[in-house]
Please model this.
Amino acid sequence: MNPDHNAMPPDMDDLLATPLLTPPEGFSERVLARIAAEGLPSAHALPSAVPPPVVPGRWRWLAVIGGSAAGVLGLSQLLAFIFGIWAATAAA
Amino acid sequence: MNISDLLPRLQSRDPAAATAAFAELVGHYQRPLFGYLGRLGLPSGQAEEVAQETFLRVWQNLASYRPGLAAFSTWLYTIAHRLALNELTRAAAQRESPVTADTPESVCEQPQPPEQLAARQQRQRLLHALHQLPLAERSILALAYVQELPLDDVARIEGCTPGAAKVRLHRARHKLAALLEPHHES
Model:
């Protein structure tokens, strides 16, 4: 019994602490048979032989440069479009 | 048994070493686990199913156990608690009587010495009284008498604050004491 308990008659405390059920004969063997059938879970498995895909350094730089260039190109197109509209409305 | 010593062996890649360590673990926890399931009101057949499933899930999920987050016993009883409550809820839905003929106390027909008979009758009385408690109160009472679980861990398993657990436990114990009064008519 844990120390927080204090309201129960002592014999009932003892009775509650006495197991009302006990493991049946051969219980451990049945559990071990089940885990043997299950095999080692993933926790025990060897680390995966296939490493996660890693982008090599130079390709990563190319990707960054390509992305930046595309961004700059897109922004310049947008500014040109806005300037075109402004120029057309100013001339009218 | 020190779980921190056992854990590396449990997580060993050698199946024989891992199984031997797990056998130690089952040997250590099986008795208190059955005690808990008995107090919760599961008959022996269902208790064995729940206990087997608990150990199987412990085996399958050893990788997810983090020693820094909770004591191993708290983790194990959390699994058992959920499985047992599912089982009791399912049984209640099927209108099965929780006290069935396969409880160990009710199967023995052989004559017994008077002291054994008295102890058996007392256990039957306790079991009957426990079954009259609402499941939430029976559950906290069942957990509170697991030696390895302090009240904080009981509260954690029950999903409430330690203060709330203490109140529920106090109420459950008073109700049980009243149910066990000699003049109490069930």
Observations:
- DSSP finds nine helices and no strands in chain B.
- Chain B has a mean pLDDT of 85.
- Chain B touches chain A through 54 residues (CB under 8 Å).
